[in-house]
From TrEMBL:
Listed GO biological process terms: DNA-templated transcription initiation
Species for this entry: Chryseobacterium lactis
Ranges of residues in domain RNA polymerase sigma-70 region: 27-93
Residue ranges annotated for the RNA polymerase sigma factor 70 region 4 type domain, each copy included: 120-169
Keywords: Sigma factor, Transcription, Transcription regulation
Pfam families cross-referenced by the UniProt entry: Sigma70_r2, Sigma70_r4_2
Name assigned to this protein: RNA polymerase sigma factor
Amino acid sequence: MKFLFGNKKDDLLSRLKKQDPVAQKLFYEQNVKRFLNVSKSYVSDLYQAEDCLIKAFCKIFKHIESFRGEANLESWARRIVVNECLNFIKSRKTVFYLDEINHSFHEEIDEPFDFDFNAQELLDQLPDAYKMVFNLYVLEEYSHQEIADTLQISIAMSKTQLFRAKEKLRKIYFQQQKMMKNEHV
């Protein structure tokens, strides 16, 4: 199908704006796996993640005319996928943010955190509030102000949730490493 558009993104975009089903199929096929991974990083249940993704693609195709080219098309579409997942989470369950805030957490947290196995497996073990803030900050590169605005929480709460997410990920990681070492002994 790539030969139809000659690899020109502008041509693909113009065809998408004309609601060309062939262009829509091509865009879908080029992005579905990556966007499903994004969706699964917010919504753990595969079927619900797929539902969010389908709704996101419908919104992408419906609102493609509003794309102004300020970012690349994939980044714009990814943000729609993330927003669809956040809307799903907000509508389906209550996310509790711990309002106990330790003021020492308010500093910018930029500590490196490396792990060498399935990151999604680790993220799935986080409480929803931690997971959303972690994903938005680390994966989507939102600022704490953008996270606060998106989730309707304070900047301090965003920073606290990120700190707690990182701490919980470290604990889970080291517990799993310890268990793996004990199994090999």
